[in-house]
Write a structure and sequence with these properties.
It comes from Vibrio maritimus. This is ABC-type multidrug transport system ATPase component. With 219 residues, the chain is α/β, with parallel strands linked by helices. The chain has 2 domains: 13-131, 3-Layer(aba) Sandwich (Rossmann fold), CATH 3.40.50.300; 164-215. The chain contains 8 helices and 8 strands, in the order H-E-H-H-H-E-H-E-H-E-E-H-E-H-E-E. The protein has a 3-stranded parallel β-sheet, covered by helices on one side. Strands 6-8-7 form a 3-stranded antiparallel β-sheet. Strands 4-5 form a two-stranded antiparallel sheet. Helix 5 (106-121) links the parallel strand 2 (94-98) and strand 3. It starts with 9 loop residues before the first helix and ends in a 16-residue tail after the last strand.
């Protein structure tokens, strides 16, 4: 990994890797500043570099006004930003994120992903695990796991093309009954309700899904 052998060079490898856990794992009884100092010391940053990196991370992740705040009293979004700041204190080449947005609101999710794109542009390779497919589509490459086995691997667009389906969305009344009728059609691979509409996956062999046999639902 990263040109190093495991386990012989595991200590050197550790200094090149960042990890953000799904469950918040920093110290609630320490302040934001104290957590950043502690993590920086763990990764062996000298005093001058540590001071510089703390100032940079606080600016990047909007923590400057919170530096004296004890972490236990922070919101989920603030803790998320602090976790990412700590995980990248040492500028890792490879960053592991375990369901990093599972406990935050949509606005914080969006801002978090903007920060990840910035890290990616700076050369960091990021490996994310997520159950949110809209988040997975943001990645350059996907690997889909089921029961511990990799079922698919490739770019999001390639995986969609390999499915051999087109997607349409339907607005109608009585969506539950409509869904049952649609999935009985041989042209339909699946249908899922999204609020007041249905997202329907139709096999690509159906050249015009809005006409022909698909519009004549089974009774």
């Amino acid at each position: 990994m990263l040109g190093l052998q495991i386990p012989e060079q595991s200590e050197a490898l550790r200094l090149k890797i960042g990890y953000m856990t799904q469950k918040f794992s920093l110290y609630d009884d320490l302040t934001v500043l104290e957590n950043l100092q502690f993590i920086g010391q763990i990764f062996g940053l000298d005093r001058a570099l540590l001071k510089q990196r703390i100032a940079e991370q606080m600016t990047i992740y909007g923590l400057t006004n919170l530096q004296k705040q004890r972490v236990g009293g922070m919101s989920g979004g603030q803790k998320q930003r602090l976790s990412l700041a700590c995980a990248t204190m040492h500028r890792p080449e490879l960053l592991f994120l375990d369901e990093p947005t599972s406990a935050v609101d949509p606005e914080n999710r969006r801002d978090f992903w903007e920060q990840l794109f910035d890290l990616s542009d700076q050369g960091t390779t990021i490996l994310v695990t997520t159950h949110y497919m809209d988040e997975a589509e943001r990645c350059h490459r996907l690997a889909i796991m089921e029961s511990g086995e990799m079922r698919a691997d490739g770019e999001p667009e390639t995986l969609m093309n390999n499915m051999g389906v087109n997607i349409i969305e339907v607005k109608a009344s009585n969506l539950r009954a409509l869904k049952e009728r649609l999935i009985a059609c041989p042209e339909v691979r699946s249908a899922a309700q999204l609020g007041i509409r249905l997202r329907v996956l139709i096999y690509q062999r159906v050249t015009d899904p809005l006409s022909g046999s698909l519009t004549h639902f089974p009774s």
